[in-house]
Specification:
Chain lengths: 109, 112
């Protein structure tokens, strides 16, 4: 079945770049997404990428997609303490989203 | 303001009681979803509905029930058959053309 995997934790220093990685299994996924969740809140869509793209940049966020390896990454440039949150990748399949376990990003001053 | 509301934010119940979680949206979205979130496990899909009066089971539907009598409302009932109901429950919605699922703020259910 479909599966999405992420590492659980990432710690960086303020001002550094953060790279959060994700692997997925459904090669027919049309779109792949990155969501952000702050403590005790719902999820907020950060960005998405269509499966025929390799890269998408949106201000401090860069998404890279390696379709051959089914690998997705989210790079946050100049990471700030306000970026501390849990980040979820998700793949779309059959009208549903399949989410990874989430990566908790901790930004140290 | 358009959005999704879930109430209450915190809910406490005794074991053996059914409890209904509310989800309302005024975005005129066709599809609505219920997810359960446990620490370190991400979001798991419980039920979803793509149109009024129709819904489908997700990956972990056992012990839950839903209804979709109105476009704007998709309540979730956690029944006494759900073995481990304590969790954070998230509702989401999307329209036919949107790429984005909009999420509500969530309800934290604690069953003791």
């Amino acid at each position: 079945g479909e599966d999405v995997e992420q590492s659980l934790f990432l710690s960086v220093r303020e001002g550094d770049s953060s790279v959060i990685n994700c692997t997925y299994t459904d090669s027919s996924s049309t779109y792949l997404y990155w969501y952000k969740q702050e403590p005790g809140a719902g999820l907020q869509l950060l960005t998405y990428i269509f499966s025929n793209m390799d890269m998408k940049q949106d201000q401090r966020l860069t998404v890279l997609l390696n379709k051959k390896d089914k690998h997705l990454s989210l790079r946050i440039a100049d990471t700030q303490t306000g970026d501390s949150a849990i980040y979820f990748c998700a793949e779309s399949t059959g009208g549903k989203l399949i989410f990874g376990q989430g990566t908790e990003l901790s930004v140290k001053p | 303001d358009g959005g999704i509301t879930q109430s209450p934010k915190y809910l406490f119940r005794k074991e053996g009681q059914n409890v209904t979680l509310s989800c309302e949206q005024n975005l005129n979205h066709d599809a609505m979803y219920w997810y359960r979130q446990d620490p370190g496990q991400g979001l798991r899909l419980i039920y979803y509905s793509q149109i009024v009066n129709d819904f489908q089971k997700g990956d972990i539907a056992e012990g839950y029930s839903v209804s979709r009598e109105k476009k704007e409302s998709f309540p979730l009932t956690v029944t006494s058959a759900q073995k481990n109901p304590t969790a954070f429950y998230l509702c989401a919605s999307t329209d036919r053309t949107s790429l984005e699922q909009y999420f509500g703020p969530g309800t934290r259910l604690t069953v003791t």
